[in-house]
Design brief:
There is one protein chain. This protein is mainly alpha-helical. It has 15 helices and four strands. The protein has two domains: 234 residues, no CATH class; 100 residues, abc type-2 transporter like domain (abc type-2 transporter like fold). The chain has a four-stranded mixed beta sheet, sandwiched between helices. Helix 2 packs parallel to helix 10 and helix 7 runs antiparallel to helix 12.
Length: 369
């Protein structure tokens, strides 16, 4: 392998990228836009749930209960209605997700120590919000009942929880690291999946075949420019994550960049393999989306827990490199994990990169069919 040949192919590819505004926009603008949109759009935090209240008691205690719901920050009272029938339109239209119905003699029964049943209606269309809201309602109701009785009931077991990682329990803190992996997987696969196919579409592949450039030199020359672009995108994503989204970066930046480079090399090699197999830019781009975006988004553990997936899908996730990169990013960001704790993921990423690069070299043939 001659370095001069690799350098010449890389220089040629850089010139093509520079002359292609679409590729440049995809390379630098798309990661920023995707991170910005998904970073703000995807959240599992449930707060300010729109709530409608039907208070038939209208006492100081009932008003205090409603105030506690509002002050918790989890509920936002959007309306007070004067009849039970008026509750339905709010739930049907989606203007409210929760309805609280306080019965008559609510305060009298509480002051007399009787059991009171307040009715709570939940919109089950969003099961996640409904389940979390139900937990909030139970906790607030129990705390209110203890205060109303003038004392605190001492439980038999005093369980005290301490959160080790992501102490604020913000969903954005674990979504952003995984989002970086998904965005990078999509960008690098889409960008480089067109590189070999573009040569066939433009009729310039015959000229490359006629040169003394060997297959590994050609693939490396094609790969290097996109590796540099991907590395710059990674740095941009890290800056956005820490400065814009305030995601905590507790681990080593050097280790993070090194493992990101390993993931980039494997992803770019896979993109070149797709480009070789696809032969046309249309087919290559569609294959890249199907084999990079969907697995990275759905099967990497980015949003959906792998342990909750059916067993056949869990087996498939072992062949998704984004799975290991998501684990690496979350470990370094949230836990400050060193290399020894991420050694298995690092080895599997390296193995994937080597195998895919070897497959691309084997698949490409310098001949016109």
């Amino acid at each position: 392998m001659k370095i001069l040949r690799v350098k010449a192919i890389a220089k040629k590819e850089l010139i093509q990228i520079r002359r292609d505004p679409f590729s440049l926009a995809m390379a630098f603008l798309m990661p920023v836009i995707l991170l910005f949109i998904y970073g703000y759009a995807i959240t599992f935090d449930v707060d300010h749930i729109p709530t409608v209240v039907y208070d038939t008691d209208k006492s100081s205690l009932s008003r205090e209960l409603i105030a506690q719901f509002q002050e918790s920050g989890y509920f936002r009272v959007v309306a007070h209605v004067e009849s039970y029938r008026a509750v339905d339109p709010y739930l049907d239209s989606g203007k409210a997700r929760v309805a609280i119905v306080i019965p008559r003699d609510f305060s009298k029964d509480i002051l007399r120590g009787r059991s009171v049943q307040a009715e709570v209606l939940l919109d089950g269309g969003d099961s996640n919000t409904a389940t979390i809201a139900q937990g909030y309602i139970v906790a607030i109701s129990e705390r209110f009942a203890q205060r109303a009785k003038g004392g605190i009931i001492t439980p038999l077991i005093d369980a005290r929880s301490r959160v080790w990682f992501n102490t604020e329990l913000k969903s954005r803190n674990f979504i952003i690291p995984g989002l970086i992996a998904v965005v990078m997987a999509v960008i690098i696969a889409l960008l480089i999946s067109l590189t070999i196919a573009r040569e066939w579409d433009r009729g310039t592949m015959e000229q490359l075949i006629s040169t003394p450039v060997k297959t590994p030199e050609l693939i490396l020359g094609k790969l290097i420019p996109y590796f540099l672009i991907g590395f710059i995108d990674t740095i941009l994503a890290l800056l956005m994550s820490t400065l814009l989204f305030d995601a905590p970066l507790r681990g080593s930046i050097t280790l993070l960049l090194f493992l990101s480079a390993l993931f980039l090399f494997g992803g770019l090699s896979f993109g070149i393999l797709i480009s070789i197999i696809g032969r046309t830019q249309l087919v290559a781009s569609q294959m890249a989306m199907l084999t990079s975006f969907l697995p990275a988004f759905l099967l990497s553990g980015f949003i959906f827990s792998i342990s909750n997936m059916p067993k056949p899908l869990q087996v498939i996730t072992y062949f998704v490199p984004a799975r290991y990169f998501v684990t690496i990013l979350k470990g370094i960001f949230l836990k400050g994990s060193p290399l020894k704790l991420l050694l298995v993921e690092t080895i599997l990423l390296a193995l994937f990169a080597v195998l895919v690069f070897a497959a691309a070299n084997r698949k490409f043939r310098k001949k016109v069919e």
